[in-house]
Structures are given as structure tokens and as C-alpha cells.
Specification:
By secondary structure, this protein is of the alpha+beta class. It has five helices and nine strands; from the N terminus they run αββαββαββββαβα. It has two domains: 30 residues; 184 residues, no CATH class.
Length: 217
């Protein structure tokens, strides 16, 4: 076996061992601890944003099987209304149930016109940032912007696989494996641009982020 082949073989064994370890650890996680892992409600006031509840179809969202759902529209005077959806999971195993909203939106008749990954500042001085998936979708005369990512109490991830690896190692250290799929949406007014809508949404994320991390502790 050549040196290059040996290196690839070792890396494959390590990757397989890690994957099997994640599966084994997931099976050991109690499935009934999730609901009690989260407070009964998520804050309806965040900074100067005030929320109203959004009704959801439990059959449609049932496929996500979350331990807790948060679905609220936040408004602040002079700002674009933004809608927050959280699917919260109390175990590493259930993190697999969260997924990209592309399938959901296309299934509801939306046309995805742009996808990208961007950064959002989550501190006032701009020193702390998280990566988010960005999406623009159109339906008839309506244009909407979506931001989504996978969150734990310890960090944000644009990729669910990276989130699971992080949760696995933190679980081995006895840390919480609470996690959530986070999606924020806003309808773009006709007199505004997609970029101006994203700016408004980033401002909300900055205000939201401390409460989000506390909720998942």
C-alpha cells in the first residue's frame, strides 16, 4: 500500500468510526427528555420588537417532530416585520429531523430564485458573527427573503452535519445537546429591495441571538 493510499485508508476508518460513534451516542440519548429541556414559551419581547403568535398546521409541521415549536412574527415601529420559526430538539438524535426549507417552500408553490451563505453580526461591535443560509423566493407578486441555520447553545452552523459533530463531542463532555432549526422570513415590500430587507433581518438577528442561546441552554 502506497503512502497516499494508506493516508486515505486511515482517514476513511476515522470518519467511519466517528459516524458510528455519533449513531451509538444518539441511541443512548433518552427520547422523552426533549420537552422539559425548554421553557414553556419563548420571549415575545426582544429589545424593541414585540411578537404575535403565528398559527401553524400541526399536520404539516408534524414531519419535523420538534420537542418545542416557536412561531412568532416580531414587529418594531418603522421596521420590516419578521417571522421567527424555531423547531427545538432536546436530543442529538432528533437533530436529524430538521432540514433545509427549500423543499417546503417549493412544495408550497414558491420559486427559489437565489441561494447563498452570508454572515450576520450578533454583537453590537461586530466582533462576533454567525454564518446563515440566505434564500430569496417568489410566489405570484410576492417576494420573500429567508435566513436559516442550525443552532445549539454553543454555536451556529450553516450545515446540519457540522452541528451534529459539535453536539456529539459536547455531549461526550456532559454538555447540553439542545439544538434548534432556526428560520427567519420577511416579505419584501414593493418599495424596498432584497438587500434592504436583509439589512432589517440582520438587525433582528442581532437582537434575537442572546435570547436564542439562553433558550437552548
Amino acid at each position: 500500500m502506497t503512502s497516499g493510499s494508506h493516508t486515505k485508508f486511515v482517514l476513511a476508518v476515522v470518519a467511519l468510526s466517528l459516524f458510528n460513534g455519533i449513531l451509538y451516542w444518539s441511541e443512548l440519548s433518552p427520547a422523552d427528555e426533549g420537552v422539559s429541556a425548554f421553557p414553556a414559551d419563548f420571549p415575545s419581547r426582544i429589545s424593541d420588537w414585540q411578537a404575535t403568535e403565528v398559527a401553524y398546521d400541526p399536520v404539516v409541521l408534524g414531519v419535523l417532530d420538534p420537542d418545542r415549536i416557536v412561531y412568532k412574527t416580531y414587529r418594531q415601529e418603522g421596521r420590516l416585520p419578521v417571522t421567527l420559526f424555531l423547531a427545538c430538539y432536546g436530543t442529538l438524535e432528533k437533530a436529524d429531523l430538521s432540514h433545509s426549507p427549500i423543499v417546503c417552500f417549493t412544495g408550497q408553490g414558491w420559486e427559489i430564485t437565489d441561494t447563498s451563505i452570508g454572515e450576520v453580526s450578533v454583537s453590537e461591535d461586530g466582533s462576533a458573527k454567525i454564518g446563515v443560509n440566505q434564500m430569496v423566493q417568489d410566489k405570484l407578486a410576492t417576494r420573500m427573503v429567508s435566513l436559516h441555520w442550525y443552532q445549539s447553545a454553543h454555536g451556529a452552523f450553516t450545515n446540519r452535519g457540522a452541528q451534529k459533530i459539535n453536539l456529539f463531542f459536547r455531549s461526550m463532555l456532559g454538555k447540553s445537546d439542545n439544538n434548534a432549526f432556526v428560520r427567519i422570513t420577511a416579505v419584501v415590500p414593493r418599495d424596498q429591495t432584497v438587500e434592504s430587507a436583509k439589512t432589517e433581518m440582520r438587525s433582528f438577528v442581532q437582537d434575537l441571538y442572546p435570547d436564542l442561546r439562553r433558550y437552548l441552554q
